[in-house]
Amino acid sequence: MPWKECNKMEERMKFVARILEGEKMASLCREFGISRKTGYKILDCYKESGMEAFDDRSRRPYRQANQLPFQVETAIIQIKKEKPHWGAPKIREKLIRKYPNIKSPAKSTVHAVLDRHGLVNCRKKRRYKAQGTEFSIVSSPNDLWCADYKGEFMLGNKSYCYPLTISDFSSRYLLSCEGLGTT
To answer: 14: Cβ–Cβ under 8 A, 6 or more apart, which residues?
Structure first.
């Protein structure tokens, strides 16, 4: 026997049709595996909007609670176009002085509005690049030796040991490894 395929819309239609035929809400809700609250909600939606009630509604909010009013946003853009060299802090201060009765947005909000409309010029940061000493060109062993501290570790008597290694650059041969009390 093949599986019966069903979707939410058909199930809601069957539910409402059986309610309208006169069946009891509690027994139908038990049969369909929904709560009575959900059953009444489906029935009320059907009474309000007819066949559209069976479709899934959008879960997107109607409005965003912290959205900046478009008048304030256009004022920010207008100020920036008048004074293109001004940044978010100066534009915010100008807004506060020009419109004292509205709640002033934060500097970060003003910057976000400017950035959204492509009015922010981002400067590229120069990254510091460390210049190390260049190694000598070594052709044979024992031409260049390297000395290096290899970190630290704690000994059993709670004192630290700092190992100093001396190695040959060409052959990578370890010439000496000494445990010292300090660097």
So the answer is: none
